[in-house]
Amino acid sequence: MSQQANRPLVQAHRTARTKEIHDNVHGTISLDPVALQIIDTPPFQRLRDIKQLGCCSFVFPGAIHTRFEHSLGTYKLAGDVYEHLSHFQQAELDLTEFDRSALMLAGLCHDLGHGPFSHVFDNEILSKIPALEDWKHEHMSTKMLDYIVETYNVDIPPALLKRVKDLILGTVVLPDEHDNKRFLFDVVANVRNSIDVDKFDYIARDCRNSGVESGYSYERLIMGMKVIDNEICFRQKQCDNLYHLFATRARLYRTVYTHDKVKAVEAMITDALSLADPYLKFTETVNDPATYWKLDDTILKKIEVSDAPELAASRKIIERLRKRDLYRYCASYVKPKDCPRKSEKVTPAHIAAISKGALLPDDIAVANVKINYALGDKNPVDNVHFFDRFDSTEKYLMLKHKVSHLLPEVFEEHIVKVYAKDPAKADKVREAFEEYQRHSYDGAVHSTPAKPKKRHRSRSPTEPKKLIL
């Protein structure tokens, strides 16, 4: 079915009554009838119980926002991009209501496939199961959308549904060679340079809720967009703003997402869920939307209040978490930028093996942290085309050395963080990891000083007691 054939039905949806909600980041968001049909279903409402930042709220109390509001925000920003492009370039781009609906619904549904505690689930739990190591939440998002449409009779044309799923995956699948709208795939999941409305929303929302100052303006980036040669380009004066976007993202990773205590909590929740899985079998649901939608962050509470003896080990870890008895941070190591093995993951077995029997792998937790500008070790701005004025028809790349000499030379770093599950073994874990560094990284060691013990000042027998009023 062609886009033209779908246009009347989509326009009918757009002219129907909409609903407005207030968002603490973007203000008023208007939801069209198709979006409302999707939102008002149990599988979508499930996103209210999946925190956007996974375990970060255990360390940053304000970071309790969820995938639900992030999805609404991405929906809104996708519409803002459409409005901007249609206002300035409608004659040449021939944007339709089909295009608007596809972009906004892709923004709305792009995170339907996330599991409990967001990326902790797929990166730390499913990745350790051989049959699921290639599982991606984006693919599950498209399955969940199909399930919602079929189960709850969402009134959406098949061609529109297919385009929404393609936009979620960032897959360039165009109906025929005459469709010149490749640029639409730059809006929600941009595989060219990673500049998209998903990132605009989560950076703004995460900064607001975690207390990190945002160093860029997504509004100015949207206002500075123009399509040239079927690609979204940016006005030249927005180059610094783009670097600030990626620098803000990297700062969030360093100070919030991979905070020492956050990674300790992640390791504990990973262990608790992994120990519970043989009994609860929740990983068996990850390819079945009919059962997967019932899985969210509340699984931790279900384990905690259960009396099942099979969950005793998991409950013990959760009890430690509630009492703030976290895995003890021991040391970290920033791998040299020219290290040939910087992409290799350090495992508890590596460190235990060098301890000569003093430690077992289960005594140790390791976090292999990767912080970058969203495109591996590449500079994403190298893949961005710019233009001078809005009446320009030419685009060009801006080489980093012509922008500023103060920009980064390296765009990715690898950090290893090591923890002792039993605080009493922290010194042994620290020593073993330092020895591992000597063997693995040409003798370079980043030692982490032990925390000084608190000294209690003894009161003189003649010193009067302080009166507390």
TrEMBL record:
Basic and acidic residues bias: start-end ranges: 460-469
GO biological process: dGTP catabolic process
InterPro entries xref list: dGTPase-like, HD/PDEase_dom, HD_assoc_2, HD_domain
GO cellular component term of the entry, any: nucleus
Alphabetical list of CDD domains matching this protein: HDc (cd00077)
SUPFAM superfamilies: HD-domain/PDEase-like
Coiled-coil region(s): none
A GO MF label: dGTPase activity
Region (Disordered): 440-469
Span of domain HD/PDEase: 63-212
Protein's name in the database: HD/PDEase domain-containing protein
Organism: Klebsormidium nitens (Green alga)
